[in-house]
Amino acid sequence: MLLMLSASLSRLTWRGRTNTLTNLKMGDTTVTLAVLERSNMATYITDECINCGACEPECPNDAISEGDSKYVIDPARCSECVGFFDHEACQAVCPVECCLPDPNNKESEDALLARAKQLHPDKGLPDLAALPATLSRFRKK
């Protein structure tokens, strides 16, 4: 869990889900207290990233962006390409193979498809039972 304070003079931001939001009054200042929970995800970009940018345009969810010293993946937007490809597009194009699965943070096919459907309600992505093998690495043989 991460604690975020937001006041009139400074604002900290973090990409994540807001689970609790509370306004606290401290004299004449109102402080907003938000408890954020970081989403676990199975794909991350290692420090070996050479900032070539090959991965960014390949992501169907716009989850990849340029960070301070390397590209980063927004866990709230990454669906590991479930619903779009039978592979992770960032891994397929990375010349130094730095888009890797994190064995400590595995997400289910169902959760990843639900995220893709939430991000793309206009795409008409199929339900899990009807998802073809061409749209999920979980179904490759």
Describe the structure.
With 141 residues, this protein is α+β, with helices and mostly antiparallel strands. It folds into two domains: 2-37, no CATH class; 43-139, Alpha-Beta Plaits (2-Layer Sandwich), CATH 3.30.70. Helices cover 11% and strands 26% of the residues. The protein has two helices and seven strands. A hairpin with a 4-residue loop joins strand 5 (64-66) and strand 6. Mean pLDDT is 81; it is low at 1-20 and 34-39.
Instruction: Give the low-pLDDT segments.
Output: 1-20, 34-39
Shape call: globular
**How many independent structural domains?**
2
Computed CA radius of gyration, to the nearest angstrom? 18 Å
The amount of beta strand, in percent, is: 25-35%
Task: Describe the sheet with the most strands.
Answer: 3 strands, antiparallel
Give the rounded overall mean pLDDT: 81
Q: In the CATH hierarchy, what is the architecture of the largest domain at level 2?
A: 2-Layer Sandwich
Query: What's the helix count?
Result: 2
Q: Output the CATH class name of the largest domain.
A: Alpha Beta
What structural class should be given to the helix and strand makeup? Answer: alpha+beta
* Secondary-structure element order, N to C: EEEEEEHEH
* Helix proportion range: 10-25%
Count of extended strands? 7
